[in-house]
Design brief:
The structure is a single chain. The chain is of the alpha/beta class. The chain has a domain of about 60 residues: Beta-grasp domain (Ubiquitin-like (UB roll)), CATH 3.10.20.30. It is about 40% helix and about 20% strand. The chain is built from 14 helices and 12 strands. The strands form 3 sheets. Strands 2-4-1-5-6-7 form a 6-stranded mixed beta sheet, with helices on both faces. Strands 3-9-8 form a 3-stranded mixed beta sheet, with helices on both faces. Strands 11-10-12 form a 3-stranded antiparallel beta sheet. A hairpin with a 4-residue loop joins strand 8 and strand 9. It starts with a strand and ends with a strand. The structure holds guanosine-5'-triphosphate (GTP) and magnesium ion (MG). The site of guanosine-5'-triphosphate has 19 residues, from helix 1 and helix 8. The site of guanosine-5'-triphosphate (GTP) has 19 residues, from helix 1 and helix 8.
């Protein structure tokens, strides 16, 4: 399952957004303390295509794909650098697949509103954390070398660490850097924070939605950005659907926070959806773009990948047009694909295997 960590300065509204999106009831705190555990919740990824398939195939179970959201405590700019992430905090943070930076764009008494500088602070904290990981590793390898412990592998790693260090020192995140397979294998064991995909959530007062001057224009182009009125969304969740829709239209909110966040999460991670159907279950699966039929088979079950013969495939749009699997077959809309077929968003796949 995909894991996304909400990260930001204190009082940027992380927990508010977490509650709005996951339907949780985590406490909104008056103070920060890293001793507290992060809030964790899983949400189903709503997909009308799955609902459609479920209506057609009437399975015993319909299984949505899911995203886990983790709401971390606020990063404080007043904390001493390097001590900001306790080791527990850091180890939780390292397990996420992507980071969602929550930036405050609503008034808070006694505090300036400056989303751009909040972004800078978060970026710096992550850079600093990675930098110290690099430094430690470089020092350890150097010490080993001094004791006479040398190897080609160590040399390779030292070179890589220096390359990363140089990059981080120039305030550039590692995610914009290209690494070859060998390098990436080493980097995987460090799980550098600045190598994780990032999305930005601007937490706004609902009044800002109507304004033409969107703060998103001031955000870096390479990051996907979404505006959410956290507190307002939380209030909307209390309403009946019809009333909810009415308020959303009135305030110019074109989609719910949960849908927006799911979309940018998939976008940021480069995920697409394929489906499997049967009498027992109809299921949606998230997979990385450019994945092959073999990788899709492996996702469903390793046995399917091992015994892979062919992938039988059709498009949901074709099923909608032709009405039944038989009609798809008769019209040449049921395809047989090999291992290397690149899975498309909206494919329904059945793996023939032995
Ligand atoms: N006006 C307004 N207030 C908000 C919004 N989102 C959150 N707040 C308020 O801001 C305060 C902080 O919200 P939280 O959700 O606890 O923020 P947080 O980022 O989780 O804070 P820490 O966990 O302490 O770092 C609370 O009083 C919220 O009610 C918003 O969109 N608009
Ligand atoms: Mg919080």
């Amino acid at each position: 399952m995909v894991k996304i960590g909400l990260l930001g300065l204190p009082k940027s509204g992380k927990t508010t957004i977490f509650n709005a999106v996951t339907g949780s009831d985590a406490k909104i705190k008056d103070y920060i303390s890293q001793k507290e555990k992060p809030n964790i919740a899983t949400i189903k990824v709503f997909d009308e295509r799955l609902q459609y398939l479920s209506e057609i195939f009437q399975p015993q179970k319909t299984i949505y794909s899911a995203i886990e959201y983790i709401d971390f405590m606020g990063l404080s700019e007043d904390d001493k650098k390097g001590e900001l992430f306790s080791s527990k905090y850091l180890s939780d943070l390292k397990t996420v697949d992507a980071l969602a930076f929550v930036l405050r764009n609503f008034e808070l008494p006694g505090k300036q509103t400056d989303s751009v500088s909040e972004l800078e602070i978060i970026n710096n904290e992550l850079l600093f954390s990675d930098l110290s990981v690099c430094e430690n590793r470089i020092n350890t390898i150097k010490k080993q070398n001094k004791r006479g412990v040398t190897s080609a592998d160590l040399d390779f790693e030292l070179k890589l660490m220096r390359k990363c260090h140089e990059r981080l020192n120039a305030s550039k995140p590692l995610r914009q850097m290209d690494f070859n397979k060998e390098e990436q294998k080493i980097l995987n064991s460090f799980q550098f924070l600045t190598q994780k995909p990032v999305m930005i959530i601007i937490n706004e007062s609902v009044d800002n939605f109507a304004s033409e001057e969107s703060i998103t224009k001031e955000m870096p182009n390479e990051l996907t950005c979404v505006e959410i009125a956290g507190k307002f969304e939380l209030e909307l969740n209390e309403l009946e659907e019809e009333e909810r829709q009415m308020f959303m239209v009135e305030y110019g909110i074109n989609d719910s926070a949960i849908n927006k966040l799911t979309r940018v999460s998939y976008d940021t991670l480069g995920l697409i959806t394929f489906f499997t159907v049967g009498d027992d279950e109809v299921r949606a699966w998230a997979i990385r773009k450019s994945s092959t039929a073999l990788q899709a088979a492996d996702k469903v079950h390793t046995d399917l990948a091992r015994g892979f013969i062919r992938a039988e495939r059709f498009r949901i749009s074709d099923l909608k047009e032709y009405g039944s699997i038989n009609a798809l077959k008769n019209n040449g809309k049921l395809y047989l694909e090999g291992k290397q077929y690149v899975v498309r968003d909206g494919d329904v796949i059945k793996i023939r295997h032995n």
